[in-house]
Design a protein that fits this description.
seven-stranded mixed β-sheet; binds pyridoxal-5'-phosphate; 18% strand; four-stranded mixed β-sheet; 401 residues; alpha/beta
């Protein structure tokens, strides 16, 4: 390959490799995300490495995605094998791998949630649930919770409370309303004959790791039953053992009519799902997605879910989450106002803005996420070891002291 002077070297001849990924992304990506100045190039288990060879304990985990760990061998093997067999197969045909996944999801789902629709992301799962609720009930109203987060597409965004996410995109979809989270009285007042669905997270993630009260979820179930509305739980973040149960609603014993899933479902391969009970009726031809339920993602999900079961992930999350809370509580770093923890879904609320501390934790080798302005969100892969949990606690205590 020609290098050096005369005509300059073309971009495809190593130009990108010579510059850092950060420089190239800054030049060629739309600035959709507020960026952190770390270029991650490799992962294994609960750890990732940057382009300078620095190691981090990854309590971002792809935003609660990498539960089975980075570069999980079972998922890698399943994806490679499926890639050699059949990558794509649209929903108009049947497929063996998809059939196995749908059967698996029905087997692990609570209650009678025995039918699934497969898509490619969390927001798409929420969109589908909204459309299925409108189709089933012939009504339009969607009631969701303040501080709730359901995704960035226009329907999911219409159910998402945060004004900063909404304000540039009006008009949003009509007939969406909000009630204060954990206020059963206001919920009962908001749900009526026009309500197609009540949509909420059993533990709010992005909203600051806030668990619903049992009273609130029971009121939601009851008012839906009384009015004919459908109850939809968004377990995109809480699902797949994150909270110490396969699904967070099992902690409450409240079964929804639809369950929205994504994030950890397929070991990091994009996949979303809606699981529905028999009340939900969808006539053929009213909804669809080209990639949804593709064999590649389904094979990854089967491997990931099998791994979670084999490694007893629910128990693991429960035990390791308690270990984090106890060790952290006994150190009581002074900037911390409160710790909210359900399994390995952990929110550390500070008395001040968290941004600088999230940066400082990164510099100290622990990647975390903000949830709102004052909460540090800790979502480690569920394969994280006791030693790694202790290291996370030790670093956090030091940085937050
Ligand atoms: C991440 C998330 C979504 C959106 O999922 P995407 O895959 O980013 O579209 C929706 N709801 C909850 C609770 C989430 O955590």
């Amino acid at each position: 390959m020609k290098t050096g002077t005369g005509g300059g070297s073309p971009d495809h001849a190593g130009g990108a490799a010579a510059r850092s990924a950060a420089e190239v992304e800054r030049r060629y990506a739309l600035e959709v995300y507020p960026k952190r100045d770390i270029t991650i190039v490799k992962g294994r288990g609960a750890e990732v490495w940057d382009d300078r060879g620095r190691r981090y304990i990854d309590c971002v985990a792809g935003i609660g995605v990498a539960s089975v760990g980075h570069a999980n061998p079972a998922v890698a093997e399943a994806v490679a094998e499926q890639a050699r067999t059949l990558v794509t197969c649209p929903g108009i045909f049947y497929n063996d791998t998809r059939a196995r996944l749908l059967e698996k999801l029905a087997a692990i789902a609570p209650g009678g949630l025995s039918r699934g629709f497969l898509c490619n992301s969390g927001a798409e799962a929420v969109e589908a649930a909204i459309k299925f609720a409108r189709l089933t009930t012939g009504r339009t109203g969607i009631v969701s919770a303040m501080r709730g987060f359901h995704g960035r597409t226009l329907g999911a965004l219409s159910a998402t409370h945060k004004e900063a996410y909404r304000d540039a995109f009006r008009p949003l979809v009509p007939d969406f309303s909000f009630v204060p989270f954990n206020n059963p009285e206001r919920l009962r007042g908001a749900v009526g004959e026009d309500t197609a669905a009540v949509l909420m997270e059993p533990v709010q993630g992005e909203g600051g790791i806030r668990p619903a009260t049992l009273e609130f979820l029971e009121a939601a179930r009851k008012v839906c039953d009384e009015t004919g509305a459908l109850l939809v739980f968004d377990e995109i973040q809480t699902g797949f053992c994150r909270t110490g149960r396969m699904f967070a609603c099992e902690r409450y014993g409240v079964v929804p009519d639809m369950l929205c899933l994504a994030k950890a479902i397929a070991g990091g391969v994009p996949l979303g799902a809606v699981l529905a009970d028999d009340r939900v009726q969808v006539p053929p031809g009213k909804h669809g997605t080209t990639y949804g339920g593709n064999p590649l993602a389904c094979a990854a999900a089967l491997a990931a879910i099998g791994f979670m079961e084999g490694e007893r992930f629910a128990e693991r999350a429960e035990v390791l989450g308690a270990r984090f809370r106890e060790r952290f509580a006994s150190a009581k770093p002074k900037r911390v106002r409160a710790v909210r923890q359900v399994g390995l879904m952990i929110g550390v609320e500070l008395r001040e803005r968290v941004r600088p501390y999230v940066e400082a934790l990164g510099a100290a080798g622990v990647l975390t996420l903000p949830a709102g302005t004052t909460v540090i969100r800790v979502l480690p892969p569920l394969v994280i070891t006791e030693e790694q949990i202790d290291e996370v606690v030790e670093v956090m205590v030091r940085v937050l002291e």
